[in-house]
Specification:
This protein has 336 residues and is mainly β. It has 5 helices and 29 strands. It has helices spanning 2-13, 30-33, 36-39, 42-58, 89-97, and strands spanning 17-21, 24-28, 62-63, 102-106, 112-114, 130-132, 135-146, 154-156, 160-169, 182-184, 187-191, 194-196, 199-200, 210-213, 216-225, 228-229, 236-239, 242-251, 254-255, 265-268, 272-276, 279-281, 284-285, 292-294, 299-303, 306-308, 318-320, 324-327, 330-331. The strands form 4 sheets. The chain has a 15-stranded mixed sheet that branches. An 8-stranded parallel sheet has the order 6-8-10-14-17-20-24-27. β1 and β2 (24-28) form a beta hairpin. The protein is elongated. Bound molecules: calcium ion (2 copies).
Length: 336
């Protein structure tokens, strides 16, 4: 806040416009007012101010206005601003993590946001993946987040993330880590989105698209295609927890070769998985369950879903170790 006020006063002295909100002077530096290309017009600037300063202060959320991958200069002051005063996706996530309530982040339509700040193994969204500790929703407007192979895209650490109308690609965490696009120990909901080209490698690496680590995962009206994992769950790995898919396409995801189970989706331990009105097609596993793989203690309930053209040496479409696995009410016996 202090930074903002200082910058504001500087702007005032330089001839910028100012306004007052709750006794705090918020000024528009002249340099920003005159930057027509990126800020639009004076009213564009104030739109941005309303979105990212007042919006942040009042709880209205943040509108991302730069494709730069840049950190917030002062996380926790409620103002989404990198060093150049712009609100990046990373800065918005950092601010959202400091808020108690839910925060809405809106992306520019049809725009690619590429993560460029290396540094995996960091959990405050400052480097590498975008860590979600608070509660936030991202309205993608058909935008795209490309993790650029530096790390996974999103890491939900006990928080809640709702993602809508977003493509997530290029996620690759360090070797041996799970969750290429998303890793979640919290609550993750993905709607009207596409996950493709996310890859996890190395021993134990599972969930090329999504790794639900004992959390709650809901995916609706979305497609996961061409994601890959070394261990299991080319599309999705459910490590226990609760996983619900509705109107989801799992296509051409793959696992291999250690051990290489569950090309489309794999559940480990006593997880609950429901798959409704979906398509599981053309996924590949190096060993078992090209489409869906259920554990000895897992409960997998599949309804009104087409499972076709998947491939694996054992159980090309589905593989059941011995848990409760039903397809349209019919029990799937343990695969031998
Ligand atoms: Ca800030
Ligand atoms: Ca991180």
């Amino acid at each position: 806040m202090r930074t903002s006020v200082t910058r504001g006063l500087a702007g005032l002295l330089a001839g910028g416009l100012a306004m007052t909100m709750s006794g705090t002077a918020i000024a528009a530096p002249a340099s920003q007012l005159s930057t027509a290309t990126n800020t639009g017009t004076t009213s564009g600037f104030f739109d941005r101010l309303l979105d990212n300063t007042l919006g942040g202060l009042l709880g209205g959320g943040y509108r991302v206005n730069t494709t730069s991958d840049s950190a917030d200069v002062r996380p926790g002051d409620r103002i989404c601003a990198d060093a150049s005063g712009r609100c990046s996706l990373r800065a918005a996530v950092q601010e959202a993590n400091h808020r108690k309530g839910a925060t809405k982040i809106t992306l520019r339509a049809h725009t690619t946001y590429r993560l460029t700040i290396a540094g995996p193994g960091e959990d405050a969204a400052a480097t590498g993946d975008l860590d979600v500790i608070g509660r936030l929703s991202i309205r993608g407007n058909d935008a795209r987040v490309d993790a650029g192979g530096l790390d996974r895209a999103f890491d939900v650490i006990g928080g809640r993330l709702d993602v809508d109308d977003l493509t997530v690609t290029g996620g690759t965490p360090p070797e041996g880590e799970s969750g290429g696009g998303f890793r979640s120990t919290g609550t993750l909901k993905i709607t009207d989105s596409v996950l493709h080209g996310n890859v996890v490698t190395g021993t134990g690496a599972s969930g090329g698209g999504v790794f639900n680590d004992q959390g709650v995962l809901k995916i609706e009206r979305s497609t996961l295609h061409d994601n890959a994992a070394t261990r299991a769950g080319g599309g999705i790995e459910a490590n226990a927890g609760d996983t619900r898919l509705k109107t989801v396409t799992l296509r051409a995801n793959r696992t291999g070769a250690a051990p290489g189970n569950g090309g489309g989706l794999h559940v480990t331990g006593a997880g609950t998985v429901t798959v409704h009105r979906s398509l599981v097609e053309g996924n590949t596993a190096a060993a078992e369950g090209g489409g869906l793989w259920n554990s000895a203690t897992g409960t997998m309930t599949v309804t009104s879903t087409r499972i076709t053209d998947n491939s694996a040496p054992k159980g090309p479409d589905v593989f059941n170790v011995g848990g409760t696995f039903t397809i349209d009410g019919e029990a799937v016996p343990p695969t031998t």
